[in-house]
Amino acid sequence: MDASDFHTRWRIARYIALWCVVSSVFACVMIPLVSQPFLNLWLDGAVFAGWFAILIPFLWNVVKYGNLLALNSILKIVVLSALGLLAVSVWLGISLVFLYWISGSEIFSLFMPIIPLYGMIGILLYIIVVQIIATACSQQMEAGNEVCEDTQIVAPFPASEPKELISLIDRVTVKIGSNIRMIPVNDILYLQSEGDYVLIITEKDKFIKEQTMKFFEQNLPQQQFVRIHRSFIVNVSFISRIECYGNNKQAMTLRNGVQLKMSVAGYRLLKASLNL
């Protein structure tokens, strides 16, 4: 098992453990409301928590990659509310059907009076999930801003190493299970720091690579790839527009709709690369 596989499995294990805890919380909440053994209540909680856990990755992709958090305030509230109503309705419907199937009509009828409570719990969970997604997106965009605002990002080439000695790469090799995938650098939209790894995003796929951002900053074609932030290196060929907001802050939008914030130093490097 390579490091990326271990990292993925560890995250999955933590995610499953979290929702096992949520299942137990569901059961504890229902103890004074439904006269059933704790095992039955926990099974009920596992059904509802399990289906919500399955629903969350879809919510994550819709909210994050649909750029819903970038909408203006009123439109964002309307869209997220509509999405929440749809998500909770689908979750509640699937969970009730599944619960009826595994428990039978007699036990299922005991839970009917508290279905509105389940709906309220679903809405609360949805709000929490959206807040977590918003926080994660904000941290990805803002990470390192205080450090980088008034300082240059790591220089494209070390002072002690002449530029002509750097061997630029034209493709990136990633391991997917037992297979090897070759990604032409021209297909890369941007690279994103993920702890000890780098997430490589193309128009169709995402790949994780055990490598440093500094390596890619130094070895990707300098006129094509610019480090706009401590967490992002962008292929300038895919930039759709650059916008200014707030006090001396900039953000870019790529052709696939993804928005990335830039540090001041990153914006300077990008302007120099684009001859602005």
Summed up:
The protein contains 7 helices and 10 strands. The protein has 276 residues and is an alpha+beta fold.
Q: What does this 3D model show about the protein?
A:
The chain is α+β, with helices and mostly antiparallel strands and 276 residues long. The protein has 2 domains: 3-142, no CATH class; 151-274, LytTr DNA-binding domain (OB fold (Dihydrolipoamide Acetyltransferase, E2P)). Helices cover 53% and strands 20% of the residues. It is built from 7 helices and 10 strands. The strands form 3 sheets. Strands 5-4-3-7-6 form a 5-stranded antiparallel β-sheet. The protein has a 3-stranded antiparallel β-sheet with strand order 8-9-10. A two-stranded antiparallel sheet has the order 1-2. Helix 1 (3-30) packs across helix 2 (38-65), helix 2 (38-65) crosses helix 4 (115-142) and helix 3 (73-111) runs antiparallel to helix 4 (115-142). The longest helix is centred in the middle third of the chain and has 39 residues, at 73-111. The radius of gyration is 23 Å and the shape is elongated. The model is unreliable at 141-166 (pLDDT under 50).
Write a concise keyword list for the protein shown above.
three-stranded antiparallel beta sheet; 276 residues; five-stranded antiparallel beta sheet
Poorly predicted segments? 141-166
Output the structural class.
alpha+beta
In percent, how helical is the residue content? 40-55%
C-alpha geometry: elongated
Instruction: Compute the number of strand runs.
Output: 10
The secondary-structure element order is HHHHHEEEEEHEEEEEH
The percent range for strand residues is 15-25%
* Biggest β-sheet: strands ordered side by side in the sheet: 5-4-3-7-6
Rg is 23 Å
Beginning-to-end CA distance, first to last residue: 47 Å
Number of structural domains: 2
Total of helices? 7
Mean pLDDT score = 75
Largest sheet: 5 strands, antiparallel
